[in-house]
């Protein structure tokens, strides 16, 4: 894909104000300050240690960088926006609020296609009623269509199932909110904020926990 064509495709997507907001300046330092305040608060309440703060605080933070991953199997090769979070203030926060151990216990959890097919093969005719319909579906732009508030509430519900309630659920929700609502990135010299959905490339999305819980809530 040529450079100008790539830039044109990216600008077309980033110009959709439903999902992205163009910023006048880079607010990374403001986000770093908010995260430090929250981590200091958690340290004071003994939810984390000094070592935790040292690890979770990114030195010399910078905005994320977005690039397009062409979908070569689709007509027109649309680009999927991927945000590289290396150096972003919330990079390690994303790891800290990762839910993958809880996701494995969800009744709706499916690891991959093989896991699903294995499950089907274990079913007997009596397990499926005549009214049951087996269907497949695809969600358009799944990550960017995860509602912020529903996603946060889904996470809150998941954290309440923990055996050890430390750190506090409220603190984890606060960190997740900063991670989700402060997705700042740069493209071609301009800065943007993702105002809906979650960024592809975020650590805590690797196991699709938010969407699984949103489905459970619905």
Describe the fold and architecture.
- The protein has helices at 3-14, 28-44, 50-56, 91-96, 100-103, 113-121, 148-159, 169-181, 209-217, and strands at residues 20-23, 64-70, 79-84, 184-187, 190-194.
- It has nine helices and five strands, in the order αβααββαααααββα.
- The radius of gyration is 20 Å and the shape is flat.
- Residues 206-218 have low confidence and may be disordered.
- Strand 2 and strand 3 (79-84) form a beta hairpin.
- Strands 1-5-4-2-3 form a five-stranded mixed β-sheet, covered by helices on one side.
- By secondary structure, it is an alpha+beta fold.
- The chain has one domain (3-120, 146-217).
Outline the fold blueprint.
Elements: H1 3-14, E1 20-23, H2 28-44, H3 50-56, E2 64-70, E3 79-84, H4 91-96, H5 100-103, H6 113-121, H7 148-159, H8 169-181, E4 184-187, E5 190-194, H9 209-217
Parallel strand pairs: 2-4
Antiparallel strand pairs: 1-5, 2-3, 4-5
Helix pairs in contact: 2-8, 7-8, 7-9
End-to-end Cα distance, whole Å, is 40 Å
Enumerate how many helices there are, as a single number.
Answer: 9
Question: How many β-strand stretches?
Answer: 5
Helix content: 40-55%
Q: Report the mean per-residue pLDDT as an integer.
A: 84
What can be said about the biggest beta sheet? 5 strands, mixed
As a whole number of angstroms, the C-alpha radius of gyration is 20 Å
What's the short story on this structure?
With 218 residues, this protein is of the alpha+beta class.
Key descriptive features of the protein:
about 220 residues, 5 strands, about 10% strand
């Amino acid at each position: 894909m040529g450079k100008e064509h790539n830039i044109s495709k990216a600008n077309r997507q980033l110009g959709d104000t439903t999902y992205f907001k163009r910023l006048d300046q880079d607010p990374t330092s403001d986000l770093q300050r908010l995260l430090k305040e929250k981590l200091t608060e958690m340290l004071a309440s003994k939810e984390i240690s000094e070592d935790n703060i040292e690890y979770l605080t990114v030195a010399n933070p910078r905005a994320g960088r977005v690039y397009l991953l062409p979908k070569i199997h689709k007509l027109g090769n649309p680009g999927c926006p991927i945000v590289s979070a290396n150096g972003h203030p919330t990079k390690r926060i994303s790891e800290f609020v990762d839910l993958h151990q809880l996701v494995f216990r969800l009744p709706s959890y499916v690891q991959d296609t093989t896991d699903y097919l294995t499950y089907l093969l274990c079913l007997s005719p009596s397990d499926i009623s005549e009214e049951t319909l087996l269907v497949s579906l695809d969600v358009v732009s799944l990550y960017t269509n995860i509602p912020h508030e529903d996603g946060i509430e889904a996470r809150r519900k998941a954290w309440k199932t923990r055996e050890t309630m430390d750190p506090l659920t409220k603190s984890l929700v606060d960190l997740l909110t900063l991670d989700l609502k402060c997705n700042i990135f740069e493209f071609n010299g301009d800065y943007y904020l993702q105002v809906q959905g979650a960024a592809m490339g975020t650590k805590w999305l690797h196991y699709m926990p938010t969407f699984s819980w949103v489905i459970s809530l619905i």
